[in-house]
Amino acid sequence: MVRWNRLAGVLSPLVAVAAAFLVGGLVVLAIGESPIRIYAILFRGAFGSVDGVGHVLFNACPLIFAGLAVAFAFRAGLFNIGGEGQLYIGSFVCAWAGLALVGVPAWIAIPLLILAAAAGGGLWASIPGVLKARFGVHEVINTIMMNFIAIGLTSYLVINVFKEAGQMTPQTVEITAGQLPRLAGPLRAIGIPLPLANPLNASILIALAAIWLAWFILYRTTFGYEVRAVGLNPQAAENAGINVRRTIVLAMVVSGAFAGLVATNEIMGFRHRFLDNFSSGLGFMGIAVALLGKNTPVGVLFAALLFGVLNTGALEVDVFTDVPRELILVLQAVTIILVVVGNEVLARKLRAREARVALEAAGEAS
Amino acid sequence: MFELVVLDSALRMATPLIFAALGGIFSERSGVINIALEGILLTGAFASVVVTYYTGDPWAGAFAGVFAGMLISLIHAIVSIVFRADQIVSGVAINLLAMGATQFLTWIIWGSSANSPPVQGMAHWGLPESWGAIARGVNAVIGHYPPLVYIALASVVVAQVVLFRTPFGLRLRATGEHPEAVDTLGVSVVRMRFSGVLLSGALAGLGGAFLALNTHQFVKNMSAGRGYIALAAMIFGKWNPIGALGACLLFGYAEAVQMGLQGRDVPTQFVQMIPYVLTMVALVGVIGRARPPAAIGKPY
Question: ipTM of the assembly?
């Protein structure tokens, strides 16, 4: 029974993805292109070269953090739509710390900047957490509102306080402290010919560590058990002596911290500056990643990789065909709608099956 | 700050918010959360420009906006009412779909993923000039705004009456508060919720049409968070049309002031934040608790 559940849990997102590709193919067909050719170009762009694979990992990296943020909160029964705001605040605090630590050696600066990023995101997420725990206000609206507040606040700070003097671009000066190394150098040393221009950097290692950490917290700590218990049934958790309010606030903090870690890729690994409005919806894509990954850490990894493949391949499709890269936005949206519906249908089937099995068992017993 | 020109643009800014907020009210009063307002606005804007582009008639465009809004909200209705999936997830997915599909189709139709060519806006209402001074006087008053501004204001009154003075409104509100009771009395919960969601699609679609026709073109992501501001206005107005109107005017005013301040040495970002901060304050209950319908978000 359990094995069947697990198999179905893995299969349903795969079916949804396949179906989305089918819908995408029909769309491509409708505009007079060959779906097979388009998909071939898409996957060639992603997997046809070491450079492509490097870009897949680079694109997946922030989505892993953003996806973990949504998935972790979800396990506590919280819908954190505020990943976007949390990653902005986390990135800004990270950049700020980097600017303050000029000249500090990397082995001190890097851990401090990572902590700053997590703390910034966590602190921002704690506000809707407290409002939910203390006043019972639903976190969805508050996290949406705080996205806009975070974007406005960081925009103000960058443009009015931290902007590089004499430059038009609304961004800070280059942050020299705590830069994460790019991976092209070390990979070439061991014989993997990743071009030096490839933006893949050590943040992907932090992302993998974060996946392990999320798994460890959820399944190997008391706090993780409490998070899952509150997510499954807050009333029962309360009766079992779990401090539900405290768990809600802490789960939001951990969730926000994951979102804040997007800064390790965007600020520490890639841009080395805080650029106004840099994210363009990473936090929202995190929701999609978490849903597709069924809110488990490993699921998030695979979903983020899939989106990384799509984002990388889309550029190739854009350049070499008459199909615009926006096709992948359609693919992603259709995938999510199908996953959502698929999950519901599957859950209902499973419930019906369980009921039938229980009924048969009762019949045999009497 | 209270110059006439600011108040004037405040009303124009408020118009798409009013349509979308009214839409949100119908959906949420029936018990279905509608995060998808953002995507519906965008879809409405896109459809209205496409149809105006091909027919040359902005009124046909407006109807297309309504129709497209209903069509995309139908997805939300089917996913969240028939399949009983999470309403917030469905809304988020629809926003993604609207964003992707409109950009994709903009590219297919006009070969640019950024914006459409300019289209005709709506002619302002008015009497023929040949009718003399009275006509000119009337025109000076009602010819001042695009027709959809007046339709938005009228919709508020209609929505208020429908919600609180008709059997349909009573049933809709009851469905959002206590669907079991409604079901027991022989009223179809599914039908009421479909009505609420489709009405919200029609209204928000019209809001999107205004947004695009007022700018005379479609620009990618032109809803720019207005769906979320409308959601905020709905909450701030405590799920009442008249209250939401007040909130929309306030938020539209904030947007107008912020635009007026642009280029001067004032941090406009803080003016921009006002709607969001006020909404959070309203939810916590500092200025009178905003209470959502009791059964909201729960599939039936």
Answer: 0.83
